[in-house]
Amino acid sequence: MSENVDRIEVVPVAEVLTDDPIEPEEAPAKRVLSMPTTVSPGRATEHGPEVVGGPIRTGVTPVAADFAAGELAQEVGSRCAQCAHFRREDWITTYKAWERGSIAQQKTLDRFTFVLARALSQAEEPTLEELAEARRQIKEGGICAALTEIRRDLTMVHPGGGCPDGMSYYQPRDRAARRASSAAYDQIMRAAQGKS
């Protein structure tokens, strides 16, 4: 499965048709993630769909989320991979322990994989390729130290993700992360001002 493509679209304030002027932070913005689309030829049976032949990859399906430009700029500028609380090494250690651990730990890892594969899949049951992609993405994860402490339970996050709605524990991990965060925020806000 190919990498998902992340695209950001911002409508400059000057192009927004409203009765009252709006601030750049309020400009409409959209984050579009292009997900690979799998179509399997098949036919319906009394026991559910019966697949005839293997999956056929036909392209991508855009999945979009609408934001105000200020909200999107904040989200993009505060991704987990840039955060001081993101613990990649802790997740690798945990992942390897679960992979070689007890049956219960292996089942937990399998459940993570299946849930993510179902989210990636267009079908009721994920394909072997989707399960492999889910396992690959899980390996890329990390542990959020802030959320783990607050919830008192291991909280795995993806490097491209951010804090859950209503929570903001993001702290840049170093000077380079602070600059990258600031640059991402500024780029979106310049687009909202029509200066991109």
Characterization of this structure:
The chain is of the alpha+beta class and 196 residues long. The chain folds into two domains: 1-77, no CATH class; 79-169, no CATH class. The protein has helices spanning 69-76, 88-100, 103-120, 128-139, 145-151, 175-192; strands spanning 5-10, 28-39, 42-45, 48-51, 56-68, 86-87, 142-144, 156-157. A hairpin with a 2-residue loop joins β3 and β4 (48-51). The relative contact order is 0.18.
Task: Give me the secondary-structure category.
Answer: alpha+beta
Q: Tell me the number of helical segments per DSSP (H or I, 4 or more residues long).
A: 6
Question: How many structural domains?
Answer: 2
- The count of β-strands is 8
Q: Average pLDDT across residues? A: 80
- Low-confidence segments, ≥5 residues, pLDDT <50? none
Read across the widest sheet, the strand sequence of neighbours is 1-2-5
Radius of gyration: 20 Å
Descriptive keywords:
single chain; 196 residues; alpha+beta; three-stranded antiparallel beta sheet
Q: In a few lines, what is going on in this structure?
A:
The chain is α+β, with helices and mostly antiparallel strands and 196 residues long. It has 6 helices and 8 strands. The protein has a 3-stranded antiparallel sheet with strand order 1-2-5. A 3-stranded antiparallel sheet has the order 6-7-8.
